[in-house]
Amino acid sequence: MTVIETTAAEQYMEQLLDPRWRALRQEIIERDAGRCRSCGREDSLQVHHRQYHVIGFSGVWKKPWEYEASLLVTLCQRCHEAGHGQYQVPIISV
């Protein structure tokens, strides 16, 4: 029997399909009036985590839907990619 390991990136992408994330994502977009908080665009919207959290020394990451709304912001795809290219998202141990 072959065991196929899922990479962290693949696991994260799967989590973004979870109904809990999709509901929170929609709440954040509605809170931000359906616009990119950086440039004001209304298309290609994504929700950006201002920081990522690792739980203690376990190495377990918080799920995308476990973050407070204050740590999430609506960005268009272009601004989101530009931000990640310019800044590294802080990783906080909680």
Strand-and-helix sequence, N→C? HHEEEEHE
Biggest sheet architecture: 3 strands, mixed
SS-derived structural category:
alpha+beta
What is the averaged pLDDT score? Answer: 91
Cα shape: globular
Strand content: 15-25%
Q: What is the number of helical segments per DSSP (H or I, 4+ residues)?
A: 3
What is the radius of gyration?
A: 15 Å
End-to-end CA span: 37 Å
Indicate the low-confidence ranges by residue numbers. none
In total, the number of domains comes to: 1
Helix content: 25-40%
| Biggest sheet: strand arrangement | 3-2-5
Keywords:
single chain; 94 residues; alpha+beta; 3-stranded mixed beta sheet; two-stranded antiparallel ribbon; 5 strands
Write the layout of secondary structure elements.
Layout: H1 8-15, H2 19-31, E1 45-49, E2 52-55, E3 60-61, E4 72-76, H3 77-86, E5 91-93
Parallel strand pairs: 2-5
Antiparallel strand pairs: 1-4, 2-3
Structure description:
With 94 residues, this protein is α+β, with helices and mostly antiparallel strands. The chain has one domain. It has helices at residues 8-15, 19-31, 77-86, and strands spanning 45-49, 52-55, 60-61, 72-76, 91-93. It has a three-stranded mixed sheet with strand order 3-2-5, with no helix packed on it. The protein has a two-stranded antiparallel sheet with strand order 1-4. It starts with 7 loop residues before the first helix and ends with a strand. The model has no long low-confidence stretch (mean pLDDT 91).
